[in-house]
């Protein structure tokens, strides 16, 4: 489809009006309960995804993650899409609360997979990693901790994952600093041994390290060949610069990833200086419109993208389309789970990669029966011109 044809079709898309808005919460369950990170206690086995569906008067629809309220949804009824969304940028300020459903809606109305609407500059084979290896070992001795994390890697591999991210930072809250650091290193070694040499192994401290303990951990884990160190400590120009210099001086290949939690106003400066390699602001919180602009800025200074998506299951679908649309993407954060009512026909996890389908939009849906049941129980709502 040529650019001219798409531009002509967009005129019709912009004229379409929002006729109905629906919202429900999808609920899922992970294969095991998820433990602590460096800051927060038990996460548990359950996950929830707030899902919004937009419908147009012409019969179009789009779906995606959104925390839109029923009151705000009423303000959308009758609004033309052109007020809420404009290419090439994406959602306007008025459409920012429904950014992901809008991208899906526009792509579906154009009959395009989302990644093609975005530009299709990357690979449809998007590498994923299992991010569910948390601090689950606080009551265990070293031998049993090693056994536990070997089993967790085996579980991830059984679900099709090849790469793994490991929570570290036990000494920030849950253990004495020295004992916590030693246990962090033991767990990383266990994960590396179980995952194999070809796997990428990342570590995530959730800002639970100091500069000194971060350096100590990197040296203790040198044999594990850590691919990236995520949130070692709160972003700080002198400390981030010193960490990169330490990594280079010690011949390590570890990248630094950051940006998930409350990034400072000078965050992008740290990327431009080369002190942070990979940006990780949350995918659904910031939205695809924001991330598309950020990816272009990062590419201009050799920065990489790996948005945070923990806690959501459906994020992986628009996220993978985003990954397939840019040239500077790293790895997609995910984890095994079962989500009743989710329809994702056409998607496949092959050789550790999520394969982006050529179906229109983001390529997922929710079973209509699930929504209707949620309406009856009051766990969903629908707003139309008549309500």
Task: Walk me through this protein's architecture.
This protein has 387 residues and is of the alpha/beta class. The chain folds into 2 domains: 3-111 and 367-384, Enolase-like, N-terminal domain (Enolase-like, domain 1, 2-Layer Sandwich), CATH 3.30.390; 125-355, Enolase-like C-terminal domain (TIM Barrel). Helices cover 36% and strands 22% of the residues. The chain is built from 13 helices and 18 strands. It has helices at residues 3-15, 70-74, 81-84, 99-110, 114-118, 142-158, 177-195, 211-220, 237-249, 267-272, 283-300, 316-323, 368-377, and strands at residues 18-34, 44-56, 61-65, 85-86, 90-91, 125-133, 163-167, 201-204, 228-230, 255-258, 278-279, 304-305, 332-334, 342-343, 348-350, 353-355, 365-366, 380-384. The strands form 4 sheets. Strands 6, 7, 8, 9, 10, 11, 12, 13, 15 and 16 form a 10-stranded mixed β-sheet that branches. It has a 4-stranded antiparallel β-sheet with strand order 3-2-1-18. Helix 10 (267-272) links the parallel strand 10 (255-258) and strand 11 (278-279). The radius of gyration is 22 Å and the shape is globular.
């Amino acid at each position: 489809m040529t650019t001219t044809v798409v531009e002509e079709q967009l005129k019709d898309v912009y004229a379409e009006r929002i006729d109905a808005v629906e919202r429900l919460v999808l609920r899922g369950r992970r294969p095991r309960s998820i433990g602590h990170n460096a800051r927060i206690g038990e996460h548990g086995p359950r996950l929830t995804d707030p899902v919004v569906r937009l419908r147009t008067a012409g019969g179009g629809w789009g779906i995606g993650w959104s925390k839109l309220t029923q009151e705000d949804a009423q303000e959308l009824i009758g609004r033309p899409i052109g007020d809420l969304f404009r290419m090439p940028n994406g959602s306007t300020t008025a459409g920012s609360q429904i950014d992901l459903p809008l991208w899906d809606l526009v792509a579906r109305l154009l009959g395009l997979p989302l990644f093609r609407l975005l530009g299709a500059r990357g690979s449809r084979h998007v590498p994923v990693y299992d991010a569910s290896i948390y601090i689950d070992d606080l009551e265990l001795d070293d031998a049993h901790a090693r056994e536990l994390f070997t089993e967790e890697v085996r579980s991830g591999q059984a679900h099709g994952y090849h790469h793994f991210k490991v929570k570290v930072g036990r000494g920030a809250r849950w253990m004495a600093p020295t004992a916590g650091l030693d246990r962090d290193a033991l767990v990383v070694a266990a994960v590396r041994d179980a995952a194999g040499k070809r796997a990428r192994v990342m570590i995530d401290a959730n800002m639970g390290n100091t500069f000194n303990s971060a350096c100590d951990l990197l040296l203790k884990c040198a044999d594990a060949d850590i691919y990236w160190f995520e949130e070692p400590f709160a972003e700080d120009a002198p400390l981030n610069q010193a960490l990169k210099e330490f990594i280079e001086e010690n011949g390590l290949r570890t990248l630094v990833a950051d940006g998930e939690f409350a990034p400072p106003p000078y965050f992008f400066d740290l990327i431009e200086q080369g002190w942070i390699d990979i940006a990780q602001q949350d995918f659904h919180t910031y939205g695809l419109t924001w991330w598309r602009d950020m990816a272009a800025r990062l590419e201009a200074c050799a920065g990489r993208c790996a948005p945070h998506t923990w806690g959501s299951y459906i994020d992986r679908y628009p996220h993978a389309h985003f990954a397939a649309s840019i040239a500077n993407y790293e790895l997609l954060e995910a984890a095994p789970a079962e989500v009743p009512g989710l329809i994702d026909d056409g998607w496949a996890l092959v050789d550790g990669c999520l394969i982006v389908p050529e179906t229109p939009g983001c390529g997922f849906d929710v079973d209509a029966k699930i929504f209707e049941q949620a309406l009856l129980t009051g766990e969903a709502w629908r707003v139309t011109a008549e309500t």
